[in-house]
Amino acid sequence: MATMRDVAILAGVSTATVSHVINGSKRISPETTERVLQAISKVNYRPNTLAKSLRLGQTHTIGVLVEDIRGLPVAAIVSGISETLAKGGYKTIFHDLHLLEKLYNQYEQIGIYRQRINEGLALLQSSNVDGIIYVAMHDRHLDYLFDPMDTPLVFAYSHGTESDTFVTYSNRDSAADMVRFLLGKGHERIAVIAGHPHSYPTGQRLLGIQMAMQQAGLTIPQEYIRYGNWEYDSGLEQTLELLKTDPLPTVIFAMNDLMAAGCMAALLSAGLRIPEDVAVVGFDNREIASYLQPPLTTIALPTPEIGTRAALHIIDMINNPSTHPVREIIHCSIIERESV
Amino acid sequence: MATMRDVAILAGVSTATVSHVINGSKRISPETTERVLQAISKVNYRPNTLAKSLRLGQTHTIGVLVEDIRGLPVAAIVSGISETLAKGGYKTIFHDLHLLEKLYNQYEQIGIYRQRINEGLALLQSSNVDGIIYVAMHDRHLDYLFDPMDTPLVFAYSHGTESDTFVTYSNRDSAADMVRFLLGKGHERIAVIAGHPHSYPTGQRLLGIQMAMQQAGLTIPQEYIRYGNWEYDSGLEQTLELLKTDPLPTVIFAMNDLMAAGCMAALLSAGLRIPEDVAVVGFDNREIASYLQPPLTTIALPTPEIGTRAALHIIDMINNPSTHPVREIIHCSIIERESV
DNA sequence: AACAGGAGGTTAATTTATTAACCGAACGCT
DNA sequence: AGCGTTCGGTTAATAAATTAACCTCCTGTT
């Protein structure tokens, strides 16, 4: 690979002049500029990023640390991140923690989490990244997971603490929106298949649901609220339980599309029609939602926006190191299909 | 950040000694070693990767260029790649071409492809990556898309040319396997919903299907072969056409899961039972396959292996620059569910 | 004529880590 | 005693850029 020195010799000038021509950091006469440019294209010179970064102390590279790229929303977020970073002239160093399997038995394995996360962070820092974006799907409080560090950090999808910058989506308000949507369609007997009882999204979404009901002067009876484990089978099982209630709910709000799919299967096998007898809605807008029979009305996570905003924030933090942490909560949208 | 110089001063030695202690490149007395180690941990020293890479001429970084991370198999492949690279001590620079939208109108836009790909490659090369893995889902011939370069390159998923190293999966043999599997279940009237008529996978899979049939002394009648466009709707439409044949096929082999889903919907709406009246199989093993009613028997792409193998190859090429190109074709496996 | 000042370059220090070449002291051997 | 090794370090060049400081003409002003 040609170096600046080769160019300088060929053009009959010093490396300083070549540098000034490239960066416009000093007036150079048109003739000299032309000679240097000629030389550059002749030897097909490209600046050595390593040398430049070493000298300047910044790499124009952002570390993206993900829990697991195989998680659908993670891939969509990373897509948004990488597009925005590239537009801003930043490169992306990608590191995957491969933590998908362990996603739900979180509290037991907190030590492993902590260790792996900090290894990942150390790796990225040793690559001299200018900033780090952490993309996680889980709902844990992350504050004490992170060793202190001086590299700017933003959380995408998951929450940070109060002193962190993060961008996430609104669990509570989205669930409330959905309830208002259902109310608007004339549904008053709304049943819920929640996720893991103690998880953060479950709590927040339940809160939003109850808020919206209350505002309409309604409540959800205890037997209409059931807890699953986010998986298809639990949606099926809990629906079977719901079918024992009398009167039946007119709509079932499953807290993710997988459980909604299980729910629909149970309903169908009980001979009920969707949405005529019981309507169903989900949460997440996974691929499966549009291929269910009937296609599922659900809530779309604002995944590309989360990525875009997170990337914008990290760039901002690099350029203005003293800015205050920002907490951005992006609204979800309801995707209306035929299950209501 | 502490530098080697800080460590040297604190330990009362030269930077050369510190370097030798860290790299074991020279005998250093136990006492001095101990003093240096103490100093390192005292100032929390970490070697500056940029300086090291600049001096040594290699970054231990691999560029991963993907057409679009939102494509499911791409994310799974990247997962395999990143895991293997990390184990091998390599970092990953990730660059996404965001080409998903344009995936099927390929021939018109070849100029854009070419330009974007080479911009991506140039970007990675300017980051001084030691090697590049290109992950694409499409079936184009890529030979003339790439400007010549000296950085080692391996193709994952898509084909390269004869002179490239690539790892992909077997379209023809997998389709043949599926036919043999169906034959073994007693099916002899096999209908096919193919993908785009002129696409590479369509051609190869059709070839495999006909090969396997021929070996069994059978052929597929012309009216049993229909072409879709890989989308749900086309699976539905083509199944409607197949239902006009007499006798009906006993099984429909859709060349992807989306078309298989459409096919099942058409069958169900025609009052046919799956698999009793007509069985259905797909290709890809997307998430949707396990949630269809009944769950779909399909072919699983060896995505993690493709990633793993590609990563291993690139590492090998870096360490042994003179090795010949290798073409690796990985076998798919049949995922047996309840649609047959 | 003398001097200021600007235009257009160059010199050399700097960023951090690696490593070939070198150097002094201690030790062993005849 | 004299010589050759080995041990345990150090010195300084090197990788490829950036940039403050400096230097030399040349022009314009009084």
Feature tags:
DNA-binding, homodimer, 42% helix, 434 Repressor (Amino-terminal Domain), six-stranded parallel beta sheet, 11 helices, Rossmann fold, alpha/beta
Can you put this structure into words, describing what you see?
2 copies of one chain form a homodimer. Chain A has helices spanning 4-11, 15-23, 30-42, 49-56, 72-87, 110-126, 171-184, 200-215, 232-242, 257-269, 303-319, and strands at 61-66, 91-96, 131-135, 153-156, 165-169, 190-194, 225-227, 251-254, 279-281, 298-300, 327-330, 333-335. The first copy, chain A, has 340 residues and is of the alpha/beta class. Chain A has 3 domains: 4-47, lambda repressor-like DNA-binding domains (434 Repressor (Amino-terminal Domain), Orthogonal Bundle), CATH 1.10.260; 59-169 and 303-330, Response regulator (Rossmann fold), CATH 3.40.50; 171-300, Rossmann fold (3-Layer(aba) Sandwich), CATH 3.40.50. Chain A is elongated. The mean pLDDT of chain A is 91. At the A-B interface, helix 4, helix 5, strand 2, helix 6 and helix 10 of A face helix 4, helix 5, strand 2, helix 6 and helix 10 of B. Chain A binds a DNA duplex (30 and 30 nucleotides) through residues 3-5, 13-20, 23, 25-29, 32, 47-57.
Q: How many domains make up the coordinates of chain A? A: 3
Question: On the 0-100 scale, what is the average pLDDT of chain A?
Answer: 91
Largest sheet of chain A: 6 strands, parallel
The name of the CATH topology of the largest domain in chain A is Rossmann fold
Which superfamily, in CATH terms, is the homologous superfamily of the largest domain in chain A? Response regulator
Number of strands of chain A: 12
List the quaternary state of the chains.
Answer: homodimer
Helix/strand/pairing class of chain A, anyone?
alpha/beta
CATH architecture of the largest domain in chain A: 3-Layer(aba) Sandwich
- Helix tally of chain A? 11
The 3D shape of chain A can be described as: elongated
Q: Output the helix-strand order of chain A.
A: HHHHEHEHEEEHEHEHEHEEHEE
Radius of gyration of chain A: 26 Å
CATH class of the largest domain in chain A: Alpha Beta
What order do the strands of the largest sheet of chain A run in, or round the barrel if closed? 2-1-3-4-5-11
Distance between the termini of chain A: 63 Å
Report the β-strand fraction of chain A as a percent range.
Answer: 15-25%
